[in-house]
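Researcher: Next entry in the queue.
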Amino acid sequence: MRIVMVGSGYVGLVSGTCFADFGHDVICVDKDEAKIAMLRESRIPIFEPGLPELVAGNVRDGRLSFTTDLASSIAGADAVFIAVGTPSRRGDGHADLSYVFDAAREIARALTGYCVIVTKSTVPVGTGDEIERIMRETRPDIDISVVSNPEFLREGAAIDDFKRPDRIVVGCQDERAKEVMSRVYRPLYLNQAPLLFTDRRTSELIKYAANAFLATKVGFINEMADLCEATGANVQEVARGIGLDNRIGPKFLHAGPGYGGSCFPKDTLALIRTANDFAAPSSIVEAVVTANDKRKRAMARRVIAACDGNVRGKTIALLGLTFKPNTDDMRDAPSISIIQALQDAGAQIRAYDPEGMEQAKLVLSNVTYARDPYDCITGADAICLVTEWNMFRALDLDRVKALARAPVMVDLRNVYRPGEMRERGFRYSSIGRA
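Model: Structure for this entry, 434 residues:
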């Protein structure tokens, strides 16, 4: 099949590359000429394990190409996916759909025959209706089906998620579109991936509901961690105890500094705004968002407490900056709030992240970036482990203690064991454990 992916960001690039790897003929379109030039040379503007090799292989085999010319790409396409950004709109938290609607107009002007228009971007309920209205207004003679097909990709594991999905959700209104989408995803039938067909509005809401529910699990276990600390219980054992219940499950029950990234923050806000617009307010999700925002800055207070209540003039070493391992994504990362709060309290920040430092420089100021974890720790009055990259899981603790000015560690990911850290002579604090 011939597929066009409009937008070559994280979702568009991963999706387009995986479709090409299935054997489809895929063209990824983007207005950013510099990005397209990079991709044509198989240089990847984002960090995602396995993606550079997959792009290079499919470009070499002629199934994947990149262009800035949307009009010439559309001719003969069976399906055109819209995979542009939908960031939170400044001031009100609504999803900014301007890029989606601009893409719809451009696609409409370029179409030459029947085509399925697929919304891959995360969009509020009713967006598909508006896309169809805009396209038919732009070209009254147009022959299209507008479909919702939300993505469920985890950064750092996106390729595996795409090729071995828990489910594929397709919201469509007619049989022609259903037949095309079945052909698009036919290569996954061997993996027995559930292909859930539903109406368009339900499909759009499934994406937001999924992310809001996962964010709620994160918020819940973080509140249980606070209760564990107050009562002397162990949050890791609590999480295991409830996660073994198959009605709950173990995933997203890891206590920490709060959620961040490209999805949970903006999608929970957008769901709240949508719910209010339809006079069906979501008080649970509102509480999760409020609690998560407070938690990020509360983590800085833990570091200050570990330094006897004063970090003015002290050097704090932060290990990990990205919102999670195996990505360079700094969007709404907890490290941002933690660093800003520590700086407000007078601390000097040294930081190291294996992939995120270039992105961090765009959002943080007055931070000294280190060469490696040990360079970061050298001379530090306290160490704060923020992101659980594998390289931080087995640090040479004797070397850490020798390099740091003071053997103080605040472990926001519960990577180390409290007993072992005490035996090694560290003043150690973690999340939800005595």
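Model: The chain has a mean pLDDT of 96.
Researcher: Noted, moving on.
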